[in-house]
Write a structure and sequence with these properties.
Number of strands: 0
Low-confidence stretches: 24-29
Radius of gyration: 23 Å
Oligomer: single chain
Number of helices: 6
Distance between the termini: 67 Å
Mean pLDDT: 84
Order of helices and strands: HHHHHH
């Protein structure tokens, strides 16, 4: 009987010292409040972000730096060579884009990253 009580005490102490590692705080579940990234598509999500922030310099007519962001094919080039994410997230060795502007919002960056992680579909 004494062993059982001792075992229960040790187990109870262990459970009090090491609470569950599961974390379900609101920020971890929804890191960008008001940012809907559940249905990220090229045509409805990525193209509008590029239009608002990039196409003025990176259109087929302007093509600054040989980069075109106004077409899916142009986007696929910079996704595949890693420049899209590096440059818009201002990563190491980046040409911080938009050039001379503010960094894209965390919401827009999250949408771009999700689209890339989905395989950059033309949808």
């Amino acid at each position: 009987m004494r062993k059982i009580v001792c075992s229960i005490f040790i187990l109870g102490s262990f459970l009090l010292l090491f609470p569950s590692c599961y974390n379900d705080n609101e920020y971890d579940l929804y890191p960008f409040p008001g940012c809907d990234s559940t249905n990220v598509t090229y045509s409805q999500t990525i193209a509008p972000i590029m239009s608002a922030n990039c196409n003025v310099c990176h259109s087929t007519a302007a093509g600054s730096g040989g980069v075109v962001t106004e077409t899916y094919d142009g986007m696929l080039v910079i996704v595949n060579n890693g420049r899209l994410w590096t440059d818009v997230s201002w990563g190491s060795g980046a040409d911080q884009m938009p050039k001379g502007g503010s960094k894209l919002s965390p919401c827009d960056l999250g949408k771009i990253k999700k689209w890339i992680n989905l395989g950059s579909p033309n949808n």
